[in-house]
């Protein structure tokens, strides 16, 4: 086994999930994430945790949903509300580790949107119980993900481990600057002015919200490995935004998404590709038309877009917004933010002709932050 | 996908587990049982059940146990009693389907016996909760199992599907004869007299016990697919028995096991190969030295030994005994039989120079039953 697989497992268990002896850990192993599953199980055994392994197979999920469609004989399947077993799992678990890495990123492409939405809606309680654990999502560098990224397998392995096996403590210190600016601010404005694309000019309120220094550890309210972003929960968005980084939503390739916000809500939308998938997201529930997240990518170890949100949204010189659910960590105690069954991130490249301002003061220009060398105020 | 995989899934879900709409089904998918997992998920979706998939990987189990050994620094690991997550899963589940078929039947060979025993002991409650579900164990015909059987992969697929895709209703009727004899009987005696092997002469009481017509369905208290045996829970065994069918116990090849019983308990044992593995089983707990099962193989669709207990013990012309736990279905209501953390089956070929008698009357001679053509009384 590649020694980096073991290092990945150790970062995940110790830095990210902070697993203690006696904790109950649920590990979901995707179809081709077996080697990482083995390394994680070994680390958990050594630390005296218990482990339960789920099989996180997209092909199994697809088969179940297609079977349900067949059973519904043309109608939309009626799914059991919050399967008792799945609910019991996450209510009993202390930690949930999701090891992504299937065999085909388009494995569920032929499942009806209505079926998918009905299934997502029926599992709200399961999702909430899962998010109440110390959960962390990561991926094993599989051939399928390499293909999605347009990279050779070994090249992709290097890319993934470069992004994951980092000095997380140092990055956390650096990201603390950005968190401070967002915590102190009331309004964020993002502007891009390019010859080759429509303008972005979006304002949103962040007053009273707390930014998360997402340093790939539950100790920082951060649940992705890799991470390297600072995010908060905006509201009352007004204006237009273009997401020019291509991505895959619901197994559909989506490019150049344009959203128009009024009073915090999407009132118009378009996409050069994948507009149906976007429409499907927006239709899920009322919260799917409102923002749940503003994130600023700060992981300069990620050097290219790979059509994987886990990596793309963390890349330096990008900002992203998510439609749907807001994370509790960004909200005042006891206050609920935007609620939705979905959380769909979309990304803008801000490396050129771009500014992000907080309360009228420029924080990032053309990708360079105020506290970095070369910043032009 | 081979159409027989779908047929296997349908027999499992409909005939074996009798899954009803709304039931909560937990499916454990072994490393190479993916295709069967997909077919089972589709069938469950169609029938309106919920599904939770566990990853039943021996390599993950081994890694966890080896990690625990490393954490114990030379001592025997101290495992958490009945992991809360695993207990919650089986307490919430209505049905448990185990799809075997890993990549290496010796995957856990280098785990210390003490570690294994400690882990088994710590999971008694989980095991009991699992056995309280409508559980069924089956296998997908993997290359690893083909190798274990000494067969080519396609040849092995034919073997497995011939054993599984049967007229179970017809076999159930045939096996009802044997059940009647055992239910009415008080004592079973098995005798073999061969030139090339030590004699078997074993008597055991079955008074008050109920035999199970194991027709591969929970409706018959039968939990294996394939099945095709009639079994009961004997006690007070006296005498000697030779198990001449080779098998694998705890990843160890075991051959020609000889057990001597006095007062129901093993007082002496030997094996031509794998004696240590046998000793390890016997040491697990007091119940491991007593019988939990007498089974009579009646599936004549299984035409050879393949070093897999799931198939070997069902083969016609064999009887088997298990050390350890007795099945509740064989016991009077509220009465407990032999209790143990283990249940280890061992098989004798009774095709020649052999008789099985119940209350002094011969029921099977040289493999032929009293009600079959060619029986010599």
From TrEMBL, chains A, B:
InterPro entries the record matches: M29_Exopeptidase, M29_N-terminal, Peptidase_M29
Cofactor(s) for this UniProt protein: Zn(2+); Mg(2+); Co(2+)
Domain of life where this protein originates: Archaea
GO BP: proteolysis
Keywords per UniProt: Aminopeptidase, Hydrolase, Metal-binding, Metalloprotease, Protease
Keyword Metal-binding set for record: yes
GO terms of molecular function: aminopeptidase activity; metal ion binding; metallopeptidase activity
Family designation: Belongs to the peptidase M29 family.
Protein name per Swiss-Prot or TrEMBL: Aminopeptidase
